[in-house]
Amino acid sequence: MKKTFPLIIVLITLSVLGVLGIQMLWIKNAIWVKNDQYQQDVKSSLVDIKTALYESFLLKNGYYSFAQDMQSTGFLLEHSFTTQNLGKDEITRIIRKELIKNKISLPFDYAITNIFNMPIIFSEGYNAEYLNRSINYIVTPERAVQVETLHLYIHEPSNYILSKISWMIIASIIFTTIIIAAFTLTIRTVFNQKKIAEVKNDFINNMTHEFKTPLATISLAVDALNNEKVIHDVEKIKYYSGMIKEENKRMNKQVEKILQAARVERQELKLILQEVDAHETIEHIAENVLLQIQQKQGTLTLDLAAPNFKLKADEVHFSNIIFNLIDNAIKYTNDAPAIKINTSTLGHFLAIKISDNGIGMSKETQSRIFEKFYRSHTGNLHNIKGFGLGLSYVKAMTEAHGGKVKVESIVGKGSTFTVMLPLLTS
Q1: 274-422 belongs to which CATH class?
Q2: In which residue ranges of the chain is CATH 3.30.565.10 found?
Q3: Mind listing the pLDDT tens digit for each residue in 301-322?
Q4: How far, in Å, CA of 169 to CA of 133, rounded?
Q5: Whole-angstrom distance, CA of residue 326 vs CA of residue 286
Q6: Dihedral angle computed from the Cα positions of residues 123, 127, 131 and 136, in that order, rounded to the nearest 10 degrees
Q7: DSSP state of 268
Q8: Tens of pLDDT along 185-202?
Q9: What is 191-265's CATH number?
């Protein structure tokens, strides 16, 4: 997995960059082709305009009856053709018709100049500024007596060529976005799978260790019970059978934790909501854990100052929330634990703060501490027992009550967990 994972990332990244490069090249080529096609359409339009002007001139002046062949037609045009004979309206109509025929439907202006570059016919919108930007095309025959030039100015909007292929660009952007989204999702999935694999391995290691110790103790106790010196000693039988019972309870408790986590994940736990005196519950839990704290030469200080401390909660799960947080405060400390619990009222919520002087957590650990099975990086030393289920349970149960939990911590200086639970409304 360690070798495959970077390879997958590199291959997918190269593929996405390759696709993006091809897309950009394709768009660039499409713009070039479209621009070339447009220029060809303009040239075709000019040729068609010239032909249409000749036809209109011959028809208007009745020369068709005299022009029996191409030679005579050419002679008539060389010596007689002039756009002045057609008029501005007719020329405008011809230009518009031929442009549309060649798929150019843009507005235009024009001017026709003589051999001295003096305008003889021009559209109303044409001005001198257009002259240098117009398309120039001689509309008289090659050996004409009077040379006349058409100056055609097409009002192209900005990014006209881009607008012609806008659907291609939009489609390209959409599909590129889909590819990038799929790439991101793939990378995210791979990361998640990697993280799940690590969590699974860590969980299996922790579970193996947690079960190995009681199983070894039970095995030793059973061997002792089978010893001839013990089998007739009632006191020793009681001692070893009591040991087996305690280790069995310990294993059942661990199994129950795992099953409870599974029920929380499947949302099968049903809360039995009732009026709960939060201060009374906290004091009761404090009494139960005080001996454990004192054995470590630690202290537990209560500052239950909230004026309103009645909750509508499930008493069992509320007790478990508080117990898990205190238990963590005891476990995750290298010195004598100094734990403080205080309460306050914030709006319609009871805020319960549990502070300790423990090892603290990094920002990364704080962001993941409420994930199921996650444990701070203690490796496989198992110096701190557990499955990493306690805080995920705290978060799930707090949210099930309509509350929230947050943590503030500094490495080496301890942590403060704040549980916010809605107060009982009167």
Answers
A1: alpha beta
A2: 274-422
A3: 999 999 999 998 888 888 888 9
A4: 29
A5: 9
A6: 0
A7: -
A8: 888 887 777 777 776 776
A9: 1.10.287.130
